């Protein structure tokens, strides 16, 4: 497994995440994906770029989309991978993939779009160059 193929984050599914049908409730996938993106930023040591108190800007979720492929159950270990899909002038797009560790099943594909906004007016503003550079490959 190459470094790029390794999961970014993994976690075990808790009872609180399970619906009446015995698998993870659909809304919890958003939490899992958001946690994976935060871990991605933490591992790149750029989480401070996304704190309004240290960056001077904020990021709002503009879009969150999930495609469900296979259910996740109680006590499953879920592995997540995150990629930056696109860096626009004022927005960032992330691709998140969730896999079941026990059999490698691809459980969900998600796409998030975050918009960079000014603190005083919450209007879209350009992503700071330092953040853009930190997220760019290479």
Automatic annotation (TrEMBL):
InterPro entries: 4-hydroxybenzoyl-CoA_TE, HotDog_dom_sf, YbgC/YbaW
Signal peptide (residue range): none
MF annotations from Gene Ontology: fatty acyl-CoA hydrolase activity
Alphabetical UniProt keywords: Hydrolase
Sequence similarity: Belongs to the 4-hydroxybenzoyl-CoA thioesterase family.
Name of the protein in its database record: Acyl-CoA thioesterase
């Amino acid at each position: 497994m190459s470094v790029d193929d390794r999961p970014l984050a993994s976690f075990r599914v808790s009872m609180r995440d399970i619906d009446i049908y015995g698998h993870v409730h659909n809304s919890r996938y958003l939490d899992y994906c958001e946690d994976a993106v935060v871990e991605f930023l933490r591992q790149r040591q750029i989480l401070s770029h996304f704190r309004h108190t240290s960056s001077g800007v904020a990021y709002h979720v503009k879009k969150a989309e999930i495609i469900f492929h296979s259910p996740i159950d109680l006590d499953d270990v879920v592995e997540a991978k995150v990629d930056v899909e696109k860096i626009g002038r004022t927005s960032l797009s992330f691709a998140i993939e969730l896999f079941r560790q026990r059999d490698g099943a691809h459980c969900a594909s998600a796409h998030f779009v975050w918009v960079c906004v000014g603190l005083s007016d919450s209007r879209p503003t350009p992503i700071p160059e330092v953040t853009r550079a930190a997220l760019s490959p290479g």
